[in-house]
Design goal:
Belongs to the bacterial reverse transcriptase family. This protein is mainly alpha-helical and 147 residues long. The chain contains 7 helices and 2 strands; from the N terminus they run H-H-H-H-E-E-H-H-H.
Length: 147
Amino acid sequence: MKVSDVLVKVCEPGRLQAAWQQVRVNAGAAGIDRMTVEEFAQREAHFLALIHDKLKSGSYRFQPARRVLIPKPGIFKKRKLGIPVVMDRVVGTSMHSVLEEIFDSEFTESNFGFRRGRSQHQAIRHLQRLAKEGRDWAVAVDLESFF
C-alpha cells in the first residue's frame, strides 16, 4: 500500500469520527493549547471537519506535547509524560487504526505488546503453555531501552 493510500484512509470522516469517540472515552488532560476533551466535544463537527481538511490538503501539523512529570510508584524519581492536544490525539488514533489494519495480521501469535484484544495476562498464560510444552527460553525486548 502506498503512503498516499494510507493518508486517504486516515482522513476518512467515519474513521476520524470513530477516533474521536475513542479519544473522548479515554478523556485525559489538556495539551499545550489547554483545550479539554469537553471543549472539543462542544465544537466536534467543526474540529473534525478542520482535521479532515488539513489532513487532505497536507497542511496538518502536530503540536508539541505538554510536558509533565509524574511520580514513579515506590521511588522519588519522576517520569516524563507528554500530553498531546486533543486534535493530535484524534489524528494519532486514526493513524493507529489504519496501521493496525495493515500490520496486525503480520505479527506472530506470541506478540502481545500494545495490540488490541491482547493483555499481559494473556501473555503470561501463553508463556505458561510454552513452559508446559518443554520450552526453556522466553525473550522480551524493550525497544526503547534497547537503543
